Hints:
The complex is a heterodimer of chains A (about 450) and B (about 180).
Chain A: E1 3-5, H1 7-18, H2 24-37, E2 45-51, E3 57-61, E4 65-67, H3 76-87, E5 90-92, H4 110-115, E6 120-130, E7 133-142, E8 147-156, H5 161-177, E9 186-194, E10 199-207, E11 214-219, E12 223-228, E13 234-239, E14 246-251, E15 257-261, E16 267-272, E17 278-283, E18 290-295, E19 300-303, E20 311-316, E21 322-327, E22 334-339, E23 346-347, E24 354-360, E25 366-372, E26 377-383, E27 389-391, E28 399-403, E29 409-416, E30 419-426, E31 432-437, E32 442-448
Parallel strand pairs in A: 3-5, 3-6, 4-6
Antiparallel strand pairs in A: 1-2, 2-31, 6-7, 7-8, 9-10, 9-32, 10-11, 12-13, 13-14, 14-15, 16-17, 17-18, 18-19, 20-21, 21-22, 22-23, 24-25, 25-26, 26-27, 28-29, 29-30, 30-31
Helix pairs in contact in A: 1-2, 3-5
Chain B: H1 9-22, H2 62-75, E1 78-80, H3 90-105, E2 111-116, H4 123-143, E3 151-157, H5 168-174, E4 176-181
Parallel strand pairs in B: 2-3
Antiparallel strand pairs in B: 1-4, 2-4
Amino acid sequence: MNISLNLIFYSIRVVDSSMNLLKESVISCFALLMIGFSMPSAAVFTIEITAPTTASIPIAIVPFSLEGVSPGVQQPADIIESDLGLSGRFEIVPRSSFLSMPHDLESILFKDWRLIKSEALVVGKVIFLGNDQYEVRFRLVNVFQGVQVVGHRYTVKAKQIRKLSHQISDIIYQTLTGRAGAFDTQLAFVTVRDTDVDREYFLQVADSDGWNAKTILESKHPILSPSWSPDGSRLAYVSFEDRHSMIFAQSLRTGKRDRVATFEGLNSAPAWSPDGSMLALTLSRDGNSEIYIYDFTGGKLRRLTRHTAIDTEPSWSPDGNSIIFTSGRAGGPQIYQMPAAGGPARRLTFQGDYNANASFSPDGKSIVMITNQGNGYKVGIYSTETRTIQELTDSRDDESPSFAPNGDVIIYATKQKGKNVLATVSADGQVQQILSYQGGLSIREPAWSPFTRKI
Amino acid sequence: MMRNPLTFVTIFIVVSALAACAGPKVAVEDGVIAEPVPVVTGEAGTTGLDGDDSLEGTGLDEGVVEVDQTNNLLNQRVIYFDYDSSSLTTESEAIVQAHAQYLSSAPGTAVILEGHADERGTREYNLSLGEDRAQSVATLMKALGVGAGTIQAISYGEERPVSLGSDDDAWRLNRRVEILYQ
């Protein structure tokens, strides 16, 4: 089964519902032109579910009534439907099967929804209050019990409606699955454009569905390893803009950036400590690749590893007490763990010839990594309980795995038909998505943001 | 400058179509290939075809052969490595040795040793691997008497392949250290 949801077509519906006198085909062309050339914040990804789960909850999301709302305002139901559909945890009941279009609790005819076997129902309204203020209401309803499960009312500006819709998706996801949603989050990634004469690198940040993409750094030289500060306000990354590797930390709000490490030799693999006060990184200034801790307060540097083999790709445990990293000390790359304060390193992985680029799940119970057990480089998940690695993907060229802040999904870079794309896989391996950059631009180095501030 | 990625989408389609036609190619970047070969001074000078007075010539004695040999090695500016290895082979050591001799004999000449890895595995590990490879070459050069200030070792990891394929031949060409005279 292969569901393809092109987000541009979701944005078409926004226009469609506000100009319903015109024929749909005419609107589609018009909308495409408008989105392609004048809307700065369309999705940069095409997201495709390649392996949806079988255990999904049927849910119907009725288009919200838009009362006094101008055509440019987005339909929250489109965004919520896209979020929940792409998560693979829900079966979206098609709008064409709806027998009625309620917007509040009183007008719901429960038999209409039982008939089309929708277990959950979302209804809502957007009401223009004047002066760029909108009231957004939504209710999540249990169809079989005929009761509201959760409902909220917000007052927001037009440009906040998209973010708010992701938050509503998060609430629905949490209510129905028991786990926090991560739709209202962002991704950092690097895109690469090849021209006849050279190559351009763009460090970008976008919403988790590819909307609102912004370039925060542009360079003719490689950009690597974006890492989010735990409060989501800054990105650390490696840039070769001066013809050798350097580590920067850049504020997303102001664009102001600090040089963290510009030592002779390698400056790579920055990873923020959970409290935001330190950065683990890899330097070769004292010989070969070793792991150091940089303390932002006072700018002090502390060396952590001491070995003739490569030590790199440090990552913190969620409690901040230990560092896991890749080391070649056993002959090939394997994952090790050591106290962040310094001390002996303990080898964690023994399965396969190549285990690298590890990071903890938010609950600290598992570690995602790139593993090669003889069938290519795949995303693998290591259980700290069973101490074994389970391969999660079927691909052969996976790189840079990163957990969503809720721990349910992992994003990574891979190749699909020779093209560099991003992909996600649920932590249980059940749901997989491919995120292609619009126009086929090469995309890599994804990093999922922490949870963002709520409206 | 903020750039909207959508604005270059169409441009890229054209560019990628061109790139696809080119197939695997050797990247001419940063003047690597255009760089002149250092000539070993005063030993291998050529003579013009202007004299008819010495038809018998002088013959190529062993010394000249040796100089030619050195020249060949100096022409080799790329050192190749095995998968996940930064060890130099015997042949590689001979090439590094030739460059070390040249650098010792030519004060004021400096080199950048640029380490690279093939695309397999993780980018950050590959950066370290490229660094180790560049350091292997640097260490041998220093052991042979080249001043540390003459050498700069840097790594691009898997970011700058010379061959764009995804097969053994491409990977073999990409696991390398380039010796770049400044």
